[in-house]
Design brief:
Helix content: 40-55%
Radius of gyration: 17 Å
Strand content: 5-15%
CATH class: Alpha Beta
Structural class: alpha+beta
CATH topology: Endonuclease, Chain A
Distance between the termini: 56 Å
Oligomer: single chain
Order of helices and strands: HHEEEHEEHEH
CATH architecture: 3-Layer(aba) Sandwich
Length: 154
């Protein structure tokens, strides 16, 4: 059971943004410092990916572990845990709503990934937990920069 009122919970949840989150801003600042120029949530591309780097034909999705179920995959019928991320918890109340919400999010992410691959885009998925600690953040940034350099059009 939820420990706060329905009205308070609604207010808290409505304050959560879908773009310009701290993890997204962190990645964008790193890219800018590294000399990469990009578009944010480009509406011309299906799914409006978080970061588009045209010269590398690359998309970067910065995903929240809770909302996008880090460590879970859609197997065609249900969500299946593939690894453990402590941030991808399941709320204790209104479980059926949350299971359906997460199922839709993961299915939509998988569909966008297929669409982008068909259109020839290179994709990097950055998970929120990969930016939490400076050691993890540095490893994530090295991974991003290594792949962008590989994909960069000369």
């Amino acid at each position: 059971m939820d420990t706060i009122s329905k009205e308070k919970r609604s207010k808290v949840m409505s304050a959560i943004h879908s773009r310009d989150t701290l993890p997204e801003i962190c990645v964008r600042k790193m890219l800018w410092r590294a000399g990469y120029r990009f578009r944010v949530c480009d509406r011309r591309i299906v799914g409006h990916p978080d970061i588009v780097i045209p010269k590398c034909r690359a998309l970067i999705e910065v995903r929240g572990c809770f909302w996008h179920r880090h460590g879970w995959e859609w197997d065609g019928r249900k969500l299946v845990e593939t690894s453990h991320c402590p941030t991808a918890t399941m709320p204790k109340s209104n479980c059926s709503f949350w299971r359906e919400k997460f199922r839709r999010n993961v299915r939509r992410d998988a569909q966008h990934e297929r669409d982008w691959a068909e259109l020839g885009w290179n994709l990097i998925v950055v998970w929120e937990c990969g930016l939490a600690k400076s050691r993890d953040r540095e490893r994530t940034f090295r991974f991003i920069l290594r792949n962008l350099a590989k994909w960069e059009r000369k």
